[in-house]
């Protein structure tokens, strides 16, 4: 079934708005946090390690990563987005880390912008994730459209992002989520690449993760609260007072990232798990890994650096890797697996 094309200009304009608002407006969570600040590592003053021997590499969905990092899904569909995605892809290739792109709905509606997502030539050896809103399965999208966006990216997996709050506030948002789990199940059974279920900053609970996994989803990206509030982003784009107020009322809605990681890992010990939502540096990444995540995704830090320059992106990843390595060194752990099993991460005692 072919997707409607009459909304393509609106979708493309929304992509440009999102980049501008994220970079220029205060759209971060103000009260709700990622929950990672509630944890601290126990310092080891005698690690009995040579820092140069520390290994922060890992495997995710069968592919080797030099560091447990994901450049989280952000953008596509505009000239600026093409530049951002190319820069991100180059740094992902250089450091052998994973990368996702923003929603590719615009590439289906407007095929002439598909090349803004076509980054495989810049990242031939990188774990790449295609991306589509799960709710689009209720709006004329199906297997053909998913195969198309996977093909555009030459992707290794498909992210289905789930964003009910954002759609409630977004002008002309798609809010029919009825029967979506069955359609996700059907899609997972028919695709030959893994499907990753991802929120957009409000978190996935253990109960919902269990349903998604039963439906055939391979991996979960918790995308918890504490970072960019997409309710606030859409409030900035509001076309009327109702939308503006809704965005502000629900600006701090969601499940903290740390809570999502621990609760999902408790019910699904072996599920490939991505931690994202409010992670801002390598210490956050290390905490997320210690809590049970396999890899960690960051968006805002990468967006800010990508807009600045390619050099800024290389510097960012270099710093992230140094921060993660320092955590391992100063907790006496030589590998990420050692870190997860060391008991080095403690929940802070709050008086």
UniProtKB/TrEMBL annotation:
<feature type="binding site">
    <location>
        <begin position="278"/>
        <end position="280"/>
    </location>
    <ligand>
        <name>FMN</name>
    </ligand>
</feature>
<feature type="binding site">
    <location>
        <position position="72"/>
    </location>
    <ligand>
        <name>FMN</name>
    </ligand>
</feature>
<feature type="domain" description="FMN-dependent dehydrogenase">
    <location>
        <begin position="10"/>
        <end position="104"/>
    </location>
</feature>
<keyword id="KW-0460">Magnesium</keyword>
<feature type="binding site">
    <location>
        <position position="103"/>
    </location>
    <ligand>
        <name>FMN</name>
    </ligand>
</feature>
<keyword id="KW-0285">Flavoprotein</keyword>
<feature type="binding site">
    <location>
        <position position="131"/>
    </location>
    <ligand>
        <name>FMN</name>
    </ligand>
</feature>
<feature type="domain" description="FMN-dependent dehydrogenase">
    <location>
        <begin position="182"/>
        <end position="342"/>
    </location>
</feature>
<keyword id="KW-0288">FMN</keyword>
<comment type="function">
    <text>Involved in the biosynthesis of isoprenoids. Catalyzes the 1,3-allylic rearrangement of the homoallylic substrate isopentenyl (IPP) to its allylic isomer, dimethylallyl diphosphate (DMAPP).</text>
</comment>
<dbReference type="GO" id="GO:0000287">
    <property type="term" value="F:magnesium ion binding"/>
</dbReference>
<dbReference type="InterPro" id="IPR013785">
    <property type="entry name" value="Aldolase_TIM"/>
</dbReference>
<dbReference type="GO" id="GO:0008299">
    <property type="term" value="P:isoprenoid biosynthetic process"/>
</dbReference>
<dbReference type="GO" id="GO:0010181">
    <property type="term" value="F:FMN binding"/>
</dbReference>
<dbReference type="GO" id="GO:0005737">
    <property type="term" value="C:cytoplasm"/>
</dbReference>
<dbReference type="GO" id="GO:0070402">
    <property type="term" value="F:NADPH binding"/>
</dbReference>
<keyword id="KW-0479">Metal-binding</keyword>
<dbReference type="InterPro" id="IPR000262">
    <property type="entry name" value="FMN-dep_DH"/>
</dbReference>
<keyword id="KW-0521">NADP</keyword>
<comment type="subunit">
    <text>Homooctamer. Dimer of tetramers.</text>
</comment>
<feature type="binding site">
    <location>
        <begin position="299"/>
        <end position="300"/>
    </location>
    <ligand>
        <name>FMN</name>
    </ligand>
</feature>
<feature type="binding site">
    <location>
        <begin position="103"/>
        <end position="105"/>
    </location>
    <ligand>
        <name>substrate</name>
    </ligand>
</feature>
<dbReference type="GO" id="GO:0004452">
    <property type="term" value="F:isopentenyl-diphosphate delta-isomerase activity"/>
</dbReference>
<comment type="similarity">
    <text>Belongs to the IPP isomerase type 2 family.</text>
</comment>
<dbReference type="InterPro" id="IPR011179">
    <property type="entry name" value="IPdP_isomerase"/>
</dbReference>
<keyword id="KW-0413">Isomerase</keyword>
<keyword id="KW-0963">Cytoplasm</keyword>
<feature type="binding site">
    <location>
        <position position="198"/>
    </location>
    <ligand>
        <name>FMN</name>
    </ligand>
</feature>
<feature type="binding site">
    <location>
        <position position="166"/>
    </location>
    <ligand>
        <name>substrate</name>
    </ligand>
</feature>
<protein>
    <recommendedName>
        <fullName>Isopentenyl-diphosphate delta-isomerase</fullName>
        <ecNumber>5.3.3.2</ecNumber>
    </recommendedName>
</protein>
<feature type="binding site">
    <location>
        <begin position="73"/>
        <end position="75"/>
    </location>
    <ligand>
        <name>FMN</name>
    </ligand>
</feature>
<dbReference type="GO" id="GO:0016491">
    <property type="term" value="F:oxidoreductase activity"/>
</dbReference>
<feature type="binding site">
    <location>
        <position position="167"/>
    </location>
    <ligand>
        <name>Mg(2+)</name>
    </ligand>
</feature>
<keyword id="KW-0414">Isoprene biosynthesis</keyword>
<feature type="binding site">
    <location>
        <begin position="14"/>
        <end position="15"/>
    </location>
    <ligand>
        <name>substrate</name>
    </ligand>
</feature>
<dbReference type="Pfam" id="PF01070">
    <property type="entry name" value="FMN_dh"/>
</dbReference>
<feature type="binding site">
    <location>
        <position position="228"/>
    </location>
    <ligand>
        <name>FMN</name>
    </ligand>
</feature>
